[in-house]
Amino acid sequence: MIEAGHFAAFLALILSFFQAGQGLMGQRRAAGLSAIVAFGAMTFAFATLVVAFATSDFSVQLVAANSHTLKPFVYKIAGTWGNHEGSMALWCLVGIGFGAVAAKLLATGRPRFEARALGVQGLLNGGALLYLLLASSPFTRLDPAPLQGAGLNPLLQDPALAAHPPMLYLGYVGYSFVFALAAAGLIEGRIDRVWARTARLWALAAFMPLTLGIALGSYWAYYELGWGGWWFWDPVENASLMPWLIGAALLHSVIVTEKRGSFGVWTALLAVLAFCFSMLGAFLVRSGVLTSVHAFAVDPLRGSLLLAGLLVFGGAALILFALRAGKLEAGPNWTTASREGALMGNNLVLIVATATVLLGTLFPLIAEAAGQTMSVGEPYFNLTFTPIMSLALVALPIVQAWSWGKADLSSLWKWGAAFAGIVAVFWLAGIGPFDIPLLAGIGLAIAVWLIAGAAMEIWRRAKTAKRLGKMPARVWGMTLAHAGLGFFVMGAVLETSGRAHTTIALQEGQATSVAGWQLTLDDVESIEGPNWYAERATVTARRGGTVAELQPHKRFYPAAQMPTTETAIHKTGLADLYVALGDGRRNTQGETRWTFEVFLNPFIDLIYLGTILIGLGAFLSMFGRKTRVKEAEA
Asked: What is the recorded function of this protein according to its Swiss-Prot or TrEMBL entry (predicted)?
C-alpha cells in the first residue's frame, strides 16, 4: 500500500506543475480540475502513511523511527506528522487542499485572475512536493523490517501537540494562497476592491488557525514542560509569532483596500511578507539551525535545500512585487488624521515589532557564525517588543472611532484623558492582593482600554443600525477579536506581575506553606502506563475550606530512553496552583526528600480566553456582509 501512496504523491507532483502551467497561461478550468485531482492523489498518499502508522508497519522507515506497538492509538496517528518527513507531507497536503478549495469556491468574475492565482499556488505546491519526494521522502522502506519501532518523541505524545501542527500548517500554508492571489493581482496590475474582498476571506482563513495553533503550542508548553510559564520567547515560538504579526497587519490593510480602494501597494507587500515569514518559519523549525524543544533537528543538506527554497521563492516574490508595484493604482487620497492614516501607522508599528522579534531570533545565529556565543532572552523582548506593541494597542480604540478620509481631532484630548485616568486607577488602587507597579498599571489600563473600546464600538454601531441583530457578522467578529486582545493583555499582565514561584523539598507526610496554600506530600508511588513508567506523587493542597489533591509525576519512556514531566494543576477560577515533581534524594538517615517546583499563576486563563475570542472573531469576520462593488470596478 505504501508504494501506491508513493506513486500517488508523484502523481500529485505532476498534477501540481500541470496546474501551474495551465493556470499561468490563463486556463481556469484546466487549472482548477488539476488542483482538485491533485488533492485527491495527495490525500490518498497521506492516508497510506496514516494507515502505516495505525497498523505499526515497521517496513516503512518513518514508522520504525517514530512509532511503537505499545504507543496509544491516537499517538500512533499523530506520529504521522510528529516528525520532519511526515510534517512536510502534511504541509504539502494542506497546500494542495487550499488550491482545491479555491478551485471550487473562487468566484471573482475574473477567470484569468483566478487561473493565475491557481497557477502560482500549483507552482508553490510543486516545489514543496519536489523537496518532499527527493530530499525527505516519508515512503522509504526497510528490508528486513525491524520487529519493533523506536517510538515517537515522548514530548509529542500529548493531545495539544497532536492538534498543534495541523493548525499551524493551516495558517502557514494559508498565507501561500494569499500570496498566490497577490501574485496574480500584481501580474494583472489590479490590486483593487474586488481583489481585496477575496483576499480578506483567505487571509482570515489563515489567521484564525494560526492564532489557535500558537495558543495550543503555548498551552502545551505551559502544562507539559514544567517551566511554569506560557511564553518563553523560544526561537520556534518566535517563528510562528512573526507571520501572525504580519498577518494582523495584512488584515487591517486589506480592509482599507476593500472599503476605500487605497493601500493596494502596501497590501500586496504585506501579502508577500506574510508568505516569506511563513517560509522562514518552516526553515527555522526544520533546518536544524535552532536548538529548541519544538524544532525538528535535521541534517545540513536538508537545511541547505530549505534555505535555497526560501531564497528562491521568497526572492521571486519580492522581485515580482518590485517589478509590478509601480503598475498599481494609488487609490483615493487620504490624510494622516483619518482611519486610513491611523491604520497605516498601526501597520508600521506591527512591521517594526516583527523586525525586533526577527532580530532577537536571528542575532544569536549571526553571532555564532562570527565565532561568538550569545543568547537573546526575555529582557530584550520586554525592552523592545512590549513598548512598540503598546503603541498599537493604545491607538486601537481611537482608530475605530475615526472616520474614513478625514477624522475629527477635537475630541482627541478626551481620549487621552480617559486613558490617563484608567492608568491612574490601576496604579494607585491596585487589584486584589497585588501591589500594581507603574508598568503593570499601564498594561492593565491598556487591557481595559481595549475591552471598553470594543464595547463602545458595538454601542456606536447599534445606535446606527437601530438594533444589534442588524449588525453584520464581520462587525461582531472585529469587536470580539479586539476584546479578546484586551483579555489576553489583562491575563498576561496579571500573570506576569502576580506569579509566585518557589522550590520545596518534602518527605512523605511533611507539609509546608506556599503562596497561601498548605501543601502536604502524602506519598510517592511507582506506576506504569501503556508505554512508560513513572514516579507519581500525591500532594494535598489546603487553603481555607478548599482541599485539592494533585498528582504530578515524572515519566520514563523505555523505547525512547527519555523522561518527561507531567505537571498537576489545580484551577481555582482566579489562579492556577501548579506543581511539578522533581528528583528524589536519599539522605544519610535513609529518608527520601522529593523536590517540587510550585507556581501560583493568577488569571492565566484570561490569556487563553483572549486567544479563543481572537480566533472566533476571525471566524465570524469570514461571514460578514459582502462589500458592494460597482460593476465598472469589477
From this structure: Required for the biogenesis of c-type cytochromes. Possible subunit of a heme lyase.
